[in-house]
Model the fold of this input.
Amino acid sequence: SPWQGFIRSVNENFHILISASLYGETLSLLCREYPDVISHCNLNYFAEWPADSRTSIAMKFLKDLGADKRVHTSMLKKIAETCSAIYKGVLNQIEALEAEQCWQTYATTASFIDMVNLFTSSAKHQFEQLTNRLEQLDTTVRRFSEADQGVVDISRQLERAERELKKKEVDLENLLRESEMEREKFLINRERFTQSEKECTNRVIATQEILKDVSVSYKELRPELEEALREIQLLKKSDIIEIRQYARPPDIVQQVMTALCLLLQHPSDWTSIKQLLSNKYFIQIIINFDKDHVSDEILERLQVYIDDPRFHPDNVNKISGACKSICKWMFAIEKYCRVYRLYLPRHKDYVKSMNMEKEIKTELKQTHNRLLEIEQTIRRTEAKREKVFRDKHVLANRLIKLKDKLKRANFLRQTLEQEQVRCQELREKESEKIKTILGDCLISSAGIAYLGPFPVRYRQNMLSQWMDMCWVVKIPVSPKYSFSNHL
Done:
């Protein structure tokens, strides 16, 4: 329709010219209220954009980059001033290009802001990218170092395992020798034990034979001696007084009491005999008489009385019952002493045999205890030997595994050695590269923003000027910087 054609024609040919001063806040308010004035209008400056204003605007857009601790505030100020200087240099190149080739182009605030924004984003991206690559390379180099350290650790483990294995072998040999020595001691002591056991058995048999002979002899005497002692114990005080009342005792009574005084080693005159009979312990003296230590002289003198036919209990009983009991007791004592002297050597043999039997049994018990101790020592030694043998087997298997592990680790280490060198060299390059990020990104951002309309000769000249600007204000730039390579 005609109306639509009219609207299309107006949209294609309608142009608005806005005139404003760079000084004051009028243009700033207009741009804030209508942002499209900046992004969709071509600006033509009739007065030069002040350098301080360009630097201030650049500092505002570089604020995000200032959060990075690697970029100091003084460096941001140098970058903002360099951006302003680049903008000024571009204006000069535009004038030269227009004068030389009548070719008109523009350097607008939008392109300046685009350059600063592009620089900020590209620098942050480059920092992040290079930081990640450096972290990856650090991780790779660290893993290579850990692998090297792992090889060293495996070598040390292998050395320790070899030392432990040698020590286990020495311990095993020592335990084997100790076990053999203990076995020899066990065999020697077992042989001694067997001999001592046989000697003990023979000694017991001999002692029993001697005891049997002595026992038989004493067994025959015991009833008679016990009966005589029993009669002595049955004597009454009146029986003793009866003997003591004699002023002139009968001959047989005198003979019995004289023989008794001989045994008791007491004076044998009648006065002394009466004193003996007056002792209240008279009967106890007879009962407690030491019959085992009668001397041969007394026994021979007593034998004279025993051999007298009149000195017989039956004859004495006709005169005094008490003297009859004493006479019977002396007959039993005389017979006991005769038998005791006859079997005294046998009795000594018996005592000696008993003592030897005790000694042999003591030695036998000691030998048996030594055998038990040796057996326990052998068992402990065998247990230690088994444990050492198992430990040695475990160490031997571990040694084989460590050798195989070390072989594979060395092979892997040799295989990756070149890669390790390459990673270290690459890390050094990236570390140097991160130092020149700001300068490289600044030149590349300026090239993207401004170099498009210019011929090649102008582009090369402008890049060279920008590099010189960076070097002058000490913004690091790669010595072999290339616009195409950086892009």
